[in-house]
Design goal:
205 residues; six-stranded mixed β-sheet; alpha/beta; 14 strands
């Protein structure tokens, strides 16, 4: 049976010369034998402990801000799993890991299968140029990274981000999903597509 597990790690987000203390949601999706890790943040040892003796098939990056990828190379070394990132986010990846490239590209519409469950990659730029969400229709869940939160869109006030782009991504790619879909975010509590859609009327375009 496929399950979704949340591991919260803590560290520092750095961009444009600023630093902020953050708690990140790391998501493990899989079964008793294999998992995908979504966003290897801050603490490879804590993530590896949660994985246990299961095989990590891939480390999937929803985007390449340092607080979502800073533990990815160490986790890859521990597990032998490839790191997957949308190529449009290589500019951000290189700010953190200039000496280690991701192992493979993510592309819009790509399907990742784990424990018999399919996750479709949705390219949702705005918070970052290569931001993606991962939609698992069999589970009624979408993993949104920092694209959509409980309370609205992710931040767009820093380099490589754009507010009109993130709003378009959410409306065209996420709000077309069923309203009951659970939204598992990169920080904070989960929500649903229907809840966020109902509260989106006041968003500027």
């Amino acid at each position: 049976m496929t399950t979704v597990q949340n591991v919260v790690t803590s560290g520092v987000f750095e961009l444009d010369g600023g630093q902020w203390d953050v708690d990140n949601n790391v998501w493990l999706i899989g079964d008793d034998s294999e998992v995908l890790v979504i966003d290897a943040a801050h603490d490879a040892a804590k993530i590896a402990e949660a994985v246990g003796d299961r095989t990590v098939r891939a480390i999937v990056c929803t985007h390449a801000h340092n607080d979502h990828v800073n533990a990815a190379p160490e986790l890859a070394e521990r597990t032998g799993a490839p790191i997957l990132l949308h190529p449009d986010d290589r500019v951000l990846w290189n700010l953190t890991h200039s000496d280690r490239a991701p192992d493979a590209d993510l592309s819009d519409g790509q399907v990742l299968t784990i424990g018999g469950t399919d996750l479709t990659v949705l390219h949702t730029p705005g918070h970052a140029p290569g931001a993606v969400c991962l939609y698992a229709p069999q589970l009624g869940v979408v993993f949104t990274g920092d694209t959509l939160f409980h309370g609205g869109p992710g931040a767009t006030g820093r380099s490589y981000s754009d507010y009109p782009t993130i709003v378009r991504s959410i409306r065209e790619r996420l709000f077309t999903l069923p309203d009951a879909t659970t939204v598992n975010t990169g920080h904070g509590e989960s929500t649903t597509i229907g809840t966020e859609k109902a509260n989106s009327a006041g968003w500027a375009d």
